[in-house]
Design brief:
- The chain is of the alpha/beta class.
- The protein has two domains: 206 residues, HUPs (Rossmann fold), CATH 3.40.50.620; 88 residues, Uridine Diphospho-n-acetylenolpyruvylglucosamine Reductase, domain 3 (2-Layer Sandwich), CATH 3.30.465.
- Helix content is 50%, strand content 13%.
- It has 13 helices and ten strands.
- The strands form two sheets. It has a six-stranded mixed beta sheet, with helices on both faces. The protein has a four-stranded antiparallel beta sheet with strand order 7-10-9-8.
- Helix 2 links the parallel strand 2 and strand 3.
């Protein structure tokens, strides 16, 4: 399990009923006494596939009961969530799942929640992000472990900060998963939406990846996963360097000195600006990030409009260095306190 699970821990297993998650459940159930962990089964019915989704929930509940593992099973209207929050079904599904994991972690006092992403999922994610455009952090793709609170922003500062999201199958391929289940005689559920052509990932899985492997590189999945491993390590290093550059006392509300940004190499300039934006809930694409970087390096007092109603402000006070702030545009216009007034 790559050292992801430690003796004495309570671990939630996210089980959809599909092959990957059922294999994870069976493996952890078998290894739990040796590992010294207490497993729990977690299942969220997205209510998108009617009776088929209800059947998935029943299958998971029965399998958990047969294995003697406590299960937490909930349902949520993901279609209504998507419509109400103007999200795609995929984005709404992720939000619902991570919210459910967080509730389960609190209720069951979990140390970690495990999802069944495999090596194939990793390869697909890297290729998908290459197609859409991604930097080092994007190419790092699916991490073996991260704080669950990072995926549920509204939970920041809560007791969930210590709960980890882990992916113990990330080094295992889908074919190995199916061979393992066959050796056990273990059935699993098939989700028809996994072959629906309206989803880009499904078309990539069924058409693009096999074509690229057949005509260009038979080792493409391995190469993509190696890219993710390299990018993850380099991304971690850049994060550490950026944190060191801004200092332990960094506070996004206090802004950041323009000269500090100017002194850094290009890669760290971008990383520091991304961090400043992330602290206030803003994610920028490459074009907008470069506009922000040019604005910051110019160092002139003024304002720059950013996406989603945010604004970059360079403010100056006498005898003090220029500072860059990232703020929601409305709050900048209405606030009395905050960054110093912009000097001509």
């Amino acid at each position: 399990m790559h050292g992801l699970i430690r003796a004495g821990e309570r671990v939630g297993l996210a089980v959809s009923g599909g092959a990957d998650s059922v294999a994870m459940l069976r493996a952890v159930a078998e290894l739990a006494p040796e590992l010294g962990v207490i497993p729990f089964v977690l299942h969220l019915n997205h209510r998108l596939r009617g009776a088929e989704a209800d059947g998935d929930a029943e299958f998971v509940a029965e399998l958990a009961a047969r294995l003697g593992i406590e299960a937490a099973i909930e349902s949520e209207d993901v279609a209504a969530l998507a419509a109400g929050q103007h999200l795609s079904l995929e984005a709404a599904g992720r939000r619902a799942r991570y919210g459910f994991f967080l509730r389960a972690a609190r209720d069951l006092r979990l140390n970690a929640v495990a999802t069944a992403h495999t090596r194939d999922d990793q390869a697909e994610t890297v290729l998908l992000r290459l197609l859409r455009g991604a930097g080092t952090s994007g190419l790092a793709a699916i991490h073996r472990s991260c704080p669950l609170a990072e995926l549920v922003p509204e939970s920041a500062g809560s007791q969930a900060d210590a709960v980890r999201l882990i992916r113990p199958l990330l080094g295992i391929g889908r074919r190995e998963v199916e061979e393992y289940l066959a050796s056990l005689g273990q059935s699993f559920r098939q989700d028809a939406s996994n072959s629906a052509e309206r989803f880009l990932r499904n078309r990539l899985r069924a058409e693009l990846l096999p074509t690229l492997e057949r005509e260009y590189n038979p080792r493409l999945r391995e190469a993509l996963c190696e890219t993710a491993e390299i990018a993850a390590a380099e991304n971690e290093l850049l994060d550490e360097l950026a944190a060191s550059a801004v200092g332990a006392e960094f506070d996004s509300e206090a802004g950041i000195e323009v000269e500090l940004i100017r002194r850094q190499p290009l890669a760290l300039q971008r990383r520091i600006l991304r961090r400043l934006c992330h602290e206030v809930g803003l994610a920028l694409d490459f074009v907008h990030l470069e506009e922000l970087r040019a604005f910051a390096l110019a160092g002139r007092a003024g304002k720059l409009e950013l996406p989603r109603g945010y604004m970059a402000v360079i403010a100056r006070e006498k005898l003090k260095p220029a500072r860059l702030f990232i703020l929601p545009s409305l709050s900048w216009k209405n606030t009395i306190s905050g960054p110093p007034a912009v000097s001509p």
